[in-house]
Amino acid sequence: MTTPQPDSDAAARGGWIRNDPRAVFTVLWLVFFFHGMTPGFWLPALTNILNARGLADWVPAAFLVAPLCALVAPLIGGALADQRVSADRLFAWSAILCSIVLFAAFQCLEAGWHPAWFIALLGAYSVLSGPSWGLLATVSLTHLSHGERQFPLVRMGATVGWVAGGLVTSHLLMADTSPLAGHASVAARIIGGLIALALPFTPPLGNAVSWKSRFGLDAFVILKQRDQCVFFIVTTLLSIPLAAFYMYAPEFLKFLGDDRPTGTMTVAQVVETFSMLVLASVMTRFRIKTVLTWALGFSVLRFLLSALAGIDGVSGWHVTGIALHGICFTFYFVTAQVFLDRRVDPGLKSQAQGLLAMVSNGLGPLLGTLVCGWMRQVLVRPDGSGWTAYWLWLAAMVFVCLVVFVVFYRGKRAEE
Question: Which residues of 324-353 are buried (b: 16+ CB within 10 A; e: fewer)?
Fold first, then answer.
């Protein structure tokens, strides 16, 4: 495989940042901050926004369209970054395009247009934003002077941004049930895209030699290795119950008497922030398998706590479960990105990150939206009873993931 040589203008782009490790860290942190702030404004509030407008039946569709679009977009975006376009520019321009589509989506919702318009535009937004997390991971792990140790710290910027967005939605804009939450996110997306234009040049390192390469399908070759295959299977299965957390945890908070559920949901990101601070140290002391196993174990406990809240009606149990989500997410998905960077050839790194995004933001949530939405209809009755059984079933699903991972994942001591 040959490595394409960037032209001098492209190589000079972002050169002043590349030569200054502090500048690289700062710019990446800011980009992550505004990138995380964007969904933090509206995603936790989406169910309540639609319910307030009499569109409760459209909630599953709203959460279904994003993973459906994410089945394709991350792989193609990763292939472009590996073979044709610099990852930094691809991220920056897609972020700016995303802001336009996102504004149109919430404008249609506010104007009272048929909800199909909102769903369609949300799908277009998902196509454009699908590769974004993988692209940012590639840029970060390429240019940070101590990638594996510093990546959790810059990734923490997204967590802080999510918290800020949620708190502004609930406590400043009072927009837990208003499309205003979506409009506010547009500004964050634009700012993040503009800052991303200053990211250091990240040249493509692969070479497209077939139609499979151009569509990012070469990434599937990594599944031939046992550990990678087990990891991706477990990630897909874990993402199924995880979809319920985003869809129904805010609704359950509202059922328990919380008038500002979007703000309360940020507890997860506050804990996630502290988890990011310790993750770098944890990964240097423990094997990848150990860290991922902890994450799965905490995930089981998270849903058990929500089930306990359903038994006695004490919201504190559910809030504690939400807080545990911050640890679960960080220890699993951030560790996963570092794991792939260690294990995958340089020419496939963006595609591997895209494959992770495909299963964690696409296939898993797609199945999760269908399965968890059906479970909610079957188990939860209009008077609110049935939530305990709902969360217990989710805990059982994660427990299966834990068993599969512990039994079949081997790991490499020398590398981890």
Answer: bbbbbbbbbbbbbbbbbbebbeebbbbbbb
